[in-house]
Amino acid sequence: MKESGWKVVRLLNDKKVRERNIDVLQTAISSIGRGNSEIFSTLYTDDWVLELPYSEHPKVLNGINEIISYLKPQMGKLEFTLRLTNIFECLDPNLLIAEYVSEGKSTITNKPYQNSYIGLWRFRDGKICGVKEYMNPIIANEANTPLEVTNEK
């Protein structure tokens, strides 16, 4: 009987952890794309890991300084909002799988930018400590590539 009591307590704790992590994820998703780098210090751990297996050159970036150094030159090239379309809870309450879409434009070309993403989001103590994001990098490159102008004679 004692063992089942601990299971109930663990399930209640897991539920609270998941709910907190979903709130953090929703805040992060609504902040990304606006060029607000301050979110990194409040929502992410200092040692978080960003994995981009589908980027032009697959990347694993470690720590907030390396990640910001990578992201900063890219911030502002695309102006977009992200919208969560699905959140999948896992057995581990500190892991969420999220599907989300972007809607926006390139600030370089004014072309539209729309992409779809799947991310594995890991949490520790109420902060994001890891993101493995799958997206199509070609869509961003195409949005930022100016149209060729041809001179017809």
Shape: elongated
Poorly predicted regions: none
Q: Give the number of helices.
A: 4
Mean pLDDT: 88
Strands ordered across the widest β-sheet: 2-1-6-5-4-3
Report what the structure shows:
This protein has 153 residues and is of the alpha+beta class. It is 33% helix and 39% strand. The chain contains four helices and six strands. It is elongated, with a radius of gyration of 19 Å. The model has no long low-confidence stretch (mean pLDDT 88).
Which key phrases capture this entry?
single chain, 153 residues, alpha+beta, 6-stranded mixed β-sheet, 4 helices, 39% strand, elongated
Task: Write the topology of this structure.
Elements: H1 2-31, H2 39-43, E1 44-52, E2 59-62, H3 64-71, E3 78-89, E4 95-106, E5 112-124, E6 127-135, H4 137-144
Parallel strand pairs: 1-6
Antiparallel strand pairs: 1-2, 3-4, 4-5, 5-6
Compact overview of the structure:
This protein has helices at 2-31, 39-43, 64-71, 137-144, and strands at 44-52, 59-62, 78-89, 95-106, 112-124, 127-135. It has 153 residues and is an alpha+beta fold.
